[in-house]
Design goal:
Elements: H1 5-16, H2 26-31, H3 38-48, E1 55-58, H4 66-79, E2 85-89, H5 94-105, E3 109-111, H6 114-120, H7 128-136, E4 141-145, H8 146-151, H9 153-156, E5 163-166, H10 181-190, E6 195-198, H11 207-217, H12 225-234, H13 238-245, E7 249-250, E8 266-273, H14 277-290, H15 303-316, H16 318-336, H17 354-365, H18 377-396, H19 401-420, E9 426-429, H20 433-444, E10 452-455, H21 462-474, H22 485-499, E11 503-506, E12 521-524, H23 531-541, E13 550-557, H24 561-573, H25 585-588, H26 595-607, H27 611-624, H28 631-639, H29 646-674, E14 679-682, E15 687-690, E16 701-704, E17 717-718, H30 724-734, E18 741-746, H31 755-758, E19 764-775, E20 781-790, E21 795-796, H32 798-804, E22 808-812, H33 820-883, H34 887-933, E23 936-949
Parallel strand pairs: 1-6, 1-7, 2-4, 2-5, 3-4, 5-6, 8-13, 9-11, 9-12, 10-11, 12-13, 16-17, 18-23
Antiparallel strand pairs: 14-15, 15-16, 18-22, 19-20, 19-23, 20-21
């Protein structure tokens, strides 16, 4: 096919056009390295819909891809050269975000914290973070933790961010409260900036949580706190609440997408084991020791956390607790010699989770402080002896009942895998690094030699290092190597598990940010007390893309009543292990972050001794999480998804595929034009070999067009719009020389039938392509406008022009002059396009102005309601005074009545002033809004040709 400069210039403009319609996401969809579902595209379009809004809340249920939706938005911003982008998320998810954006959208990211800033800004005095961000902004998507953003609020508020993503936004649901430090900091740091809030649980136990999230987005969605409470919480004005939410909340449930997302089933088995008398004795003795009010073994400043982790280690394996007992023993001996060791050496090498730390922080907030006490040498000596007896008993154990049961569990699991014809892969989760190492050695010696791999927070064991080095050598020069040791190690270990190993033994570090669709057997060797962590583990395997039913095996100690009730709670109440969907957010949402229930269970283990006490405590816990959601709260939750429209998603699915097909054609053809004589193109397998470097920094080699099926053995660079070479090719197209001329399009040799063009074989006409640039403070946009007519002057639509450029063409020397009627038609098309742009933007303006009007109305009503409340209270007090027969009571009531009358007069006198002030604020907001949408439209001729089809 002969691709002319006119083809190239048109294709380049199509590829980078800043749209505002349903094709807005074209660039990000093309660059995404993930199969996208219609609801994700719909959510991303919703987030980008109105640039006049300060932001929206995406609240899809767990597992539907909120990170993907946010990634689409960020990728589109990047493509549109809006690159001042920030992600604020829990600390534990920072690397996961970096991995997801790199792997799925090829976006450059940087995790920013105090250490990174200090290392990068050595020798710089003053505002290090400010200068650091100035250096990195626009070059990378910055990622920070909630805590760091809170602490550095004043620095982050100084930047004019194009988009801020706040993940796990429900953690700031109390942002409306003055004492909510994190929520208040987020409001101050990012007020007025475009934001995207992400949470699976926008509403848990109170409608006020929704109000809190709204203030995080925009101060002017609802009136003040009292008005919201009165209007929506007490009066239950759900139609109005639903109307308001529709503009800023988008929510999809798993049950809504079952038509096009196939979820496999979950199946559960319980692997019971019975500890020997010696094992059970060790458990009981240490449990009793941990119940002591005070001891030298447990650091006072972190007693709760230390006891919690010890109990988990004790349940995990005798070897795990033995290592900690020895560390405690060393610490006590050092204390005896007045050389106390650092407290957390007790858990050196263990993977502490965010929940562990949060539990510890909660304890500190409750006011437990370390108080200096005189050392009781007798008590210390007794405690050392006690620990030594525990160590001796642990060392004397000759049987590990639990690890023997693991062999049975593996056999059961693999038999089920064989029955399902599923891959013989299993991930075993433990809560202890020591247990992990013990299981690794045990399985190597019991039938699984060279078939086991470990995954932890550090991944520094000899096997992991060897696998990583081998992976680096294998992928040297490949874009798969990111340069981040942590990221690449994780990738290497996952690939080794997928390709070479049968078993992966993982700590909690693998419960987030790891995708294991190729594995459908999961063993909870240690079962967390937090249901959300259990769900996260299962979600590594039971997710979109899993082809087989997922088998979950849970270990159960038959001699431990608390363990039995815990498993019953997770199975029966939280329904974690059965069905297609697993635990729904309506259940998990009740328990907030999961720390509450973990604390409850920890308390049961710590305080209950008899079976009766354990039964009663778990009965109370189960009742606590039974049915605490009110009907009104459930109605509101339902209202969040009431607008779900399957037909919209079906339309998006078809439209998106068509658009991607078009973009593939444009990008491939443009690349052939730009790289003529620089590359060899293979259209069978959709790649080209770059042989001549067009620009510094662009490597030679094979470049693969995305989304095309090819021989999997063909490897190379992924060729995308935001790749340096892709951007260079687009720039060549934009700069192509396109003077007025005649183009002869060849339909005769085109391989497919295009009815629209077939009718015009042998005919001619004129064609012009213009670009309208729209500039405003809110958002810049572009629109391509085709003007086409035949030689008789009959207007043809834009689709004719788009189809025309599918054909090969030759540039003719003649340049016939277009008739006057064509110029008039061109002006008419441009005016029509401008009018449509104005109408679309006016609709967005009206939507935002309605929000401001509603806010002002809320505020006005709040002032009037205040008077009504005082009047109602005054009438009640007057009734009480009339009926009171006690002189003292009458005097007290008359004093209260006098105060209320004074307050009523003041409120009435101030009503006009308050309402005038609200009206002034409303006008100021509307003027600010008008300034944002004040548009400047300019026209730019791209090219004009006379066309002829042969």
């Amino acid at each position: 096919m002969n691709i002319t400069p006119y083809h190239a210039r048109y294709f380049a403009n199509e590829l980078i056009c800043r749209r505002t319609d349903d094709n807005r996401l074209s660039q990000s969809l093309f660059d995404a390295k993930v199969d996208l579902n219609p609801h994700q595209i719909d959510a991303a379009l919703f987030a980008l819909k109105n640039p006049l809004q300060e932001g929206v809340l995406l609240a899809d249920e767990v597992g539907l891809g909120k990170t993907i939706e946010a990634g689409l938005v960020l990728c589109q911003m990047w493509a549109e050269r809006k690159r001042k982008l920030l992600i604020v998320c829990p600390a534990i998810l920072r690397k996961q975000w970096a991995n997801e954006l790199y792997e799925k959208f090829d976006l450059p990211t940087l995790v920013v914290d105090k250490t990174v800033v200090n290392q990068a800004m050595k020798g710089v005095s003053g505002a290090k973070l400010l200068n650091f961000c100035k250096n990195q902004i626009r070059r990378k998507v910055l990622i920070v933790s909630h805590q760091y953003a809170t602490k550095e609020m004043n620095t982050f508020k100084q930047f004019d961010w194009d988009f801020v993503v706040i993940d796990e936004a429900h953690k700031m649901r109390n942002a409306y409260k003055a004492d909510n430090k994190m929520g208040q900091a987020m409001r101050k740091a990012f007020g007025g900036k475009r934001k995207l809030l992400l949470t699976a649980t926008p509403l848990q136990n109170s409608l006020m949580e929704l109000y809190g999230l709204s203030t995080l987005l925009d101060e002017h969605i609802f009136g003040d706190r009292k008005f919201f409470q009165r209007e929506f919480v007490r009066r239950g004005n759900l139609p109005e609440l639903k109307s308001r939410m529709a503009t800023f909340v988008k929510r999809t449930l798993r049950k809504n997408v079952l038509e096009y997302i196939r979820y496999t089933e979950r199946k559960t088995f319980t692997q019971e084991f019975t500890p020997t008398d010696s094992e059970h004795l060790l458990y009981q003795q240490i449990s009793e020791f941990l119940r002591k009010e005070s001891s030298y073994a447990l650091p006072k400043t972190h007693k709760h956390l230390t006891a919690l982790i010890l109990r988990k280690l004790l349940a995990s394996s005798s070897l795990a607790v033995l290592g900690t007992l020895r560390a405690i023993h060393s610490r006590l001996l050092a204390l005896q010699q007045a050389q106390e060791l650092p407290e957390f050496e007790l858990f050196d090498g263990e993977d502490l989770t965010d929940e562990d730390i949060e539990i510890d922080e909660l304890e500190q907030e409750e006011g437990e402080e370390s108080v200096a006490e005189e050392l009781n040498k007798t008590a210390l000596a007794k405690e050392i002896a006690e620990i030594e007896s525990f160590i001796a008993l642990a060392e004397s154990l000759t049987v590990d009942s639990k690890v023997i049961a693991l062999l049975t569990a593996l056999q059961t699991g693999f038999e089920n895998m064989a029955a399902l014809n599923a891959p013989q892969k299993v991930i075993i989760f433990t809560e202890s690094v020591r247990t992990q190492q013990y299981l690794f050695q045990f399985l190597q010696e019991n039938g699984y030699q060279n078939n086991v791999v470990m995954f932890s927070g550090s991944n520094n064991d000899p096997q992991a290092v060897e696998i990583y080095q081998s992976w680096l050598a294998k992928n040297a020069g490949s874009p798969k190597v990111t340069g981040s040791v942590d990221v690449d190690k994780r990738t290497a270990l996952i690939e080794h598990f997928r390709d070479n190993a049968q078993i992966m033994i993982a700590t909690e570090a693998a419960s987030e940010g790891v995708n294991l669709q190729f594995c459908s057997l999961l063993i909870n060797y240690d079962l967390p007390w937090n249901p959300q962590r259990v769900e996260q583990r299962i979600g590594r395997c039971h997710r979109y893309g899993q082809k087989f039913d997922v088998v979950v095996i849970n270990f159960l100690n038959k001699r431990n009543k608390a363990d039995q009730r815990e498993l019953e709670l997770l199975t029966e109440k939280f329904k974690l292990f059965q069905g297609v969907l697993g635990a729904s957010d309506e259940v998990l949402g009740e328990i907030e972050s999961g720390v509450d229930i973990e604390n409850w269970i920890a308390k049961i283990y710590a305080t209950c001794r008899t079976e009766e006490e354990i039964q009663q405590a778990f009965d109370e816990l189960q009742a606590k999480f039974a049915d605490q959601i009110s009907d009104r709260l459930q109605e509101t939750k339902n209202a969040l998804v009431d607008s779900f429209d399957q037909s919209v998603l079906e339309r998006l699915k078809v439209m998106t595929q068509n658009r991607l097909n078009e973009m593939e054609y444009w990008f491939w053809s443009l690349s052939r034009f730009a790289l003529d004589n620089k590359a060899q193109f293979n259209q069978t397998d959709w790649y080209f070999l770059l042989q001549d470097c067009p620009q510094v920094g662009i490597p030679l080699g094979r470049y693969l067009l995305p989304r095309k099926e090819r021989n999997p053995q063909i490897q190379g660079y992924e060729y995308r719009l935001n790749h340096q070479l892709g951007e260079w090719c687009i720039e060549q197209g934009l700069q192509a020389f396109t003077p007025d001329c005649r183009l002869e399009f060849d339909y005769t040799n085109y391989s497919e039938k295009i009815s629209l063009l077939e009718h015009y074989q042998g005919k001619s006409g004129w064609l012009r392509l213009d670009k309208i640039n729209v500039q405003s403070n809110a958002e810049n946009q572009e629109r391509l406008v085709f003007t086409v007519c035949d030689e008789q002057g009959n207007a043809l639509d834009a689709e004719f022009a788009q189809k025309l450029f599918l054909l090969s063409a030759n540039v003719q020397n003649s340049t016939p002059k277009a008739p006057l009627a064509f110029k008039q038609l061109n002006q008419s098309e441009l005016e029509k396009a401008k009018s449509q742009i104005q109408q679309e933007n006016s609709a967005l303006l009206m939507e935002k102005s309605r929000q401001i009007n509603a806010w002002a109305k809320d505020q006005m009503q709040a002032a009037e309601d205040n008077i009504k409340e005082i009047k109602d209270e005054l009438r009640e007090k007057e009734k009480e005074a009339a009926l009171a027969d006690n002189i003292k009571q009458q005097i007290e009531l008359q004093e209260e009545i006098a105060k209320l009358r004074k307050a009523l007069r003041k409120a009435r006198n101030e009503l006009d002033d308050v309402q005038d002030e609200i009206a002034d604020q409303e006008m100021a907001l509307l003027r600010e809004l008008k300034a944002k949408v004040n548009q400047t439209m300019t026209e730019e001729k791209v090219f004009e040709i006379a066309w002829h089809i042969i």
